[in-house]
Write a structure and sequence with these properties.
The protein is α/β, with parallel strands linked by helices and 366 residues long. It is 25% helix and 25% strand. The radius of gyration is 22 Å and the shape is elongated.
Length: 366
């Protein structure tokens, strides 16, 4: 697999799947599957085409991303594409005429023989390139290009049953679209089950383990403090989950090819059950001179906001290591307790609730 951060000239015919792929959720999964099927049938190379940086970083608008770029690359890697191409997003690319984008990039440079897009895909200047216009372009190209369009993928928030796309399970009742926007809203509302169902996996937070105030290890339960890289923290509260701890300081995005990410060896990992806390610690007295628990340039949280985890059945020092927290179930909201003793009693109950929840929630797949 080759990862590019420019637009290469490819000689091999390709099946191109186009999208932003923030979070790489279940609708993305169905879309990429369409591209995979077309690649197999036409003996084409699978190419996943996206943008970097995300448009929200160039055209300012409120959109906290579900995945870091590193998480995105690793999630896309699992589809075993021949190429992942991140087009450099700029004002110039934003203002390209739709026909020029089709001719000069998709056909001339990327050698597209099949294109797979979502039902609401738009491209080119002023987003004037619609799915219907793309269909005409494909049909009238010198060599006809096949176009696959994914229908809207829906989910029932009550049953968490998916439907739509290319076929799928029929389900009665109110349904919402599987989208990055709706996943963000579910996470902020504490509806982790719904968010995870739309993602098709556990929502994750990643970053380095940093030193905290030491209050947990002295008076409560020892926790690891995460200097998170993600832009979106879900609703404050206690979560059941798993912690994947890397043996190295940080994992490496693997890839090769001109303009691609550097090649490197995979870091060994260890996974533990854990109780995860996200919030502002209203029960902890602010006696420390430490003014912030988070210094990452990726987010701008309040100075008291924390992401911590108590690893069950673990002892040792892993400060400085890279860790991914997998959020499996929302246990309870954040509460202000009048004393540390009462907080410790509640945390003990939380740990039992976490252990009980994890009996039916398997560890994340590698």
């Amino acid at each position: 697999m080759k990862v590019y951060y420019d637009i290469p000239n490819l000689n091999e015919p390709t099946s191109i799947v186009i999208g932003n792929f923030d979070g790489v959720h279940k609708a993305h999964d169905k879309l990429i599957a369409m591209g995979q099927n077309a690649a197999k049938e036409g003996e084409l190379k699978l190419l996943i085409l996206s943008l970097y940086p995300h448009p929200s970083k160039v055209i300012p608008y409120e959109s906290k991303l579900l995945s870091t770029h590193q998480q995105q690359v690793e999630l896309l890697r699992k589809y075993n594409p021949s190429y992942i191409v991140f087009m450099p997003f700029s004002r110039e690319l934003q203002n390209i005429e739709p026909q020029d984008f089709f001719n000069n990039i998709l056909i001339h440079k990327l050698n597209a023989k099949n294109i797979s897009v979502g039902y609401n895909y738009n491209f080119g200047k002023n987003r004037l390139g619609t799915v219907e216009k793309l269909r005409v372009m494909c049909q009238t190209a010198p060599e006809t290009v096949n176009l696959s369009i994914l229908k809207q993928v829906m989910i029932n928030p009550e049953s968490l049953v998916l439907s739509g796309g290319e076929g799928g399970t029929s389900d009665d009742g109110e349904r919402i679209s599987v989208s990055s926007t709706n996943i963000r809203q579910a996470l902020m509302a504490g509806k982790l089950d719904l968010a995870n169902a739309m993602l098709g996996r556990y929502y994750t937070l990643s970053g380095k383990i940093v030193h905290g105030d030491g209050i947990g290890s002295k008076s409560l339960y020892p926790t690891i403090n995460l200097d998170w890289e993600n832009e979106l923290l879900p609703n404050d509260g206690i979560y059941a989950g798993y912690a994947t701890v890397f043996s190295s300081i940080e994992p490496t995005i693997m890839g090769d090819g001109a303009g691609g990410a550097g090649d490197g060896g995979a870091s060994k990992t260890y996974t533990y059950q854990c109780a995860i806390y996200i919030g502002k610690r209203p029960s902890i007295p602010r006696t420390s001179s430490r003014t912030t628990s988070h210094t990452s340039s990726h987010t701008s949280p309040t100075v008291e906001q924390r992401a911590e985890a108590y690893l069950l059945n673990f002892t040792g020092d892993i400060h400085g290591r890279y860790v991914t927290l997998h959020l499996t179930k929302y246990i309870r909201k954040d509460i202000n307790f009048p004393s540390l003793e009462q907080l410790k009693v509640q945390i003990t109950k939380d740990i039992l609730a976490v252990q009980d929840a994890l009996t039916s929630l398997p560890p994340p797949s590698s």
